[in-house]
Amino acid sequence: MTAVIFDLDGTLIDSAPDIVANANVVLQEMGFAPLPPTQIKGFIGRGVGHLLRSVLEASGQVPDGPLLEPMQTRFNERYETAFDMTVIYPGVIKTLDQLVGMGCALGICTNKPIAPAHAVLRHLGLADYFPVVYGGDSFAVRKPDPTPLLAAVKDLGHEAVIYVGDSEVDAATAVAAKLPFLIYTEGYCKTPVHDLPHNAAFNDFRQLPGLVAALAKG
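^ that's the sequence the OP posted. Answer follows.
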């Protein structure tokens, strides 16, 4: 049996509209002009701290200055309910059902904080698929450090494990954990896919069960 561990934002769900809106609301509450959505979207993937440091820097402020803590507090207060515009990518639910039918165990390793991760999974009806979920604040380190991914591997208890993600961070995490990596090309990656280490790329979730089966066969 194979365990398949997924990233969340940009892989299973498109949450960028809510993250962007949340960041811009907090910016405006603190007296700054909103930033272009595409700019904020480019900051997603390395955790809330990186996102807000980048937002502050783009607003002409010191990234690690006195504004970071109050901004992070305001952002996090809203984050657990920031899912009104978040959607599941096409084909995800059918694919998860197929993977379960193939005997795969499923988990999530994301840099999204654990409480918002659980909240959005419940909201979208995905929670029951994933008995193991680790977030960006589950440990003192986050991806690309392999610690949370390896913890998910241990909890799922399968020798064959595949990681599925959409970004440079996910590719680096898979390398650090020494796991095969499948990259979803319709997420938030900024680097050309051919420049990232991966076993295979896919742009349609209908392709994923076949890729998992092929890797499982070795």
